[in-house]
Amino acid sequence: MADNEKLSVGGFLFYTERDAQLAAVELKKMEYLEARIDYSRPESVLLVYVKTIHERIFQTPVGFRYLNGLRDFLLKQPEIKPEDVPEIPLFITFSTETGKQNMPEKNRLEAVGGMGTDGKREKTRFLFSVILNVLLVMAVAAMFSIALRSNNPNILNYERAITNRYAAWEQELTEREQKIREKEKELRLEQ
Q: What's the pTM?
């Protein structure tokens, strides 16, 4: 009996202790929301309801029952249009069939406004990632090319730039020295 007590939460008997713990956490979330929801303002209740669906706050039957209660409340309100109250999407299957699920993926994604895992969405992200990586590699290659061809010394060409600079100074000094020696010879010859 102790095992059943660990697995029982909110009138549901869960298969694993982890699921029961998740349901217990959802009970605390429900208590938190109940303490803060202002039922006199159905618009704010609708905002809370939609946000909990989009963020998938509730994932167990305990949470789904709470969401269903909020949904029923909203549908009874004259100022709330029924089409503004989304249905509660379930991200689990109940049949033992393998392969295709009962609800097509397109309809499931529409139920939550495009949330969830979607093959097309993943492919788009992957393609975007590949394109971005190629552009970044090209930018890095361009920076290296510019750095190598630049006349200013940098980490890639500092040795060549410094060697060239000192070679130019040495050549200039050699030319000056040569001129000075020629002048000295001229002056000695004139004396």
A: 0.48
Two tokens, residue 1? 């009996």
Closest Cα to residue 70, out of 92, 85, 91? 85
Q: Both tokens of residue 101?
A: 């699920």
Tens digit of pLDDT at every position of the chain (191 positions): 466 777 888 888 888 888 888 889 989 998 998 888 888 888 988 998 899 888 888 888 888 999 999 899 999 998 988 888 888 888 777 777 655 555 555 555 555 555 445 578 888 899 999 999 999 999 999 988 887 777 677 777 678 778 888 899 999 999 999 999 998 888 887 76
| Amino acid sitting at position 185 | K
Sign of the alpha-carbon dihedral angle for 76, 77, 81, 85: negative
User: Beta-carbon neighbour count of residue 49 at 10 Å?
Assistant: 23
Measured in whole angstroms, the distance separating CA 69 from the mean position of its chain's CA atoms is 33
Total count of residues recorded for the chain: 191
**Dihedral sign (CA 92, 94, 96, 97):** negative
For the CA atoms of 52, 57, 59, 65, what is the dihedral angle to 10 degrees? -50
Q: 40: which 2 tokens?
A: 């006199």
